[in-house]
Amino acid sequence: MDNRGVLAVISGFSGSGKGTLMKALLEKYDNYALSVSWTTRKPREGEEDGVSYFFRTQEEFDRHIEEDGFLEYARYVDHSYGTPKQYVFDQLDQGKDVLLEIEMQGALQVKEKYPDTVLIFVTPPNAEELKRRLVGRGTEDMETIKKRLARADEESKGMEQYDYLLVNDSIERCAEELHGVIMAAHARMGNHLELVNNIKEQMKQF
Amino acid sequence: MDNRGVLAVISGFSGSGKGTLMKALLEKYDNYALSVSWTTRKPREGEEDGVSYFFRTQEEFDRHIEEDGFLEYARYVDHSYGTPKQYVFDQLDQGKDVLLEIEMQGALQVKEKYPDTVLIFVTPPNAEELKRRLVGRGTEDMETIKKRLARADEESKGMEQYDYLLVNDSIERCAEELHGVIMAAHARMGNHLELVNNIKEQMKQF
């Protein structure tokens, strides 16, 4: 148990910088692995299978659901997205801390099935800053931005169900905090009961 | 609430290196404050009032108990030891993370009164190593060592009531872990409910 990896779910508003945050963590430390999701949507220009997503047909996806092959899955608009169980468990068994970047709905599914999962929500320091970041990108039309703000409003409703809130006002500091949360998860007493029992047994022999 | 310090109790076997660990933390980061205990024992050679302890008479100590001035207190052999509430709260209010190095009995008292307190137990990697560290000092006679081992045996019984276990096989790594545990305590969702509510309120105005 002691050397098993930690399963951490990272959610956060679009514009919270959670992608950059995870990238910073992966670059700085070697104990992390990202989970790659399955999706039924078509690859976009330049997307490689197995990098940002595993691209699968709806039939393959549905079969995988039947085989209980997903940690969580969800349908958005016309496409299905899911986190493959096998890959995540393999990484955890090898001692890697696995970061899942998924939506709230999936996050709560995972936590219910695996209560040791650490749920982390990333937010800009306030809603005005969030709005500024969303609008400030300048890459999308007002319609898209409005949709995103509406979704952020929707997501904010469940924020308090997460274990941790990270306020992303500086990527570097926030990445340190995220790493701290993962280190703390390793140090939880529940992960070390075997060691505690060993120490107690050895003590008796003094 | 967001900027208040974290109250952390550090306990551990004699020989676990918890003193060195806390020193390493204080040297590396500026967010920590150590609590200085009151004691009724006489100062030893070179001990200054207010540094390792505040030296007080039994009358002063008892009056402070009556005034509810201690976070926790206990009596060992012929002397009383206590953690002064005022100092700890002042530091927490100033945003300092306060480290209390106290025994298990006091640790559990503090946790009961202040459930947000983080209880951390420090241990060498195994009991053999613990024995080696205790005996290896070579500064005490066998009688003292045996007493200490017996007390370690006693203390090991309550280890699992702590929130975190830190295995001190490297001071540097272990100090990083301890710092991670404190950072995680800051990031707990319960500390950020005001921010969460503010974000929700601001969202509604978009």
Describe the structure.
Chains A, B: This is Guanylate kinase. Chains A, B: Essential for recycling GMP and indirectly, cGMP. Chains A, B: It catalyses: GMP + ATP = GDP + ADP. 2 copies of one chain form a homodimer. Chain A is an alpha/beta fold and 206 residues long. Chain A has a domain at 7-35 and 97-204: 3-Layer(aba) Sandwich (Rossmann fold). Helix content of chain A is 45%, strand content 21%. Chain A has 8 helices and 9 strands. Chain A has helices at residues 18-28, 58-66, 85-93, 104-113, 127-136, 142-156, 171-187, 193-204, and strands spanning 7-12, 32-34, 37-39, 53-55, 70-76, 79-84, 97-101, 118-123, 164-167. In chain A, the strands form 2 sheets. In chain A, strands 2-7-1-8-9 form a 5-stranded parallel beta sheet, with helices on both faces. In chain A, strands 4-3-6-5 form a 4-stranded mixed beta sheet. In chain A, a hairpin with a 2-residue loop joins strand 5 and strand 6. Chain A starts with 6 loop residues before the first strand and ends with a helix. The mean pLDDT of chain A is 90. Chains A and B meet through strand 8, helix 5, helix 6, strand 9 and helix 7 of A and strand 8, helix 5, helix 6, strand 9 and helix 7 of B.
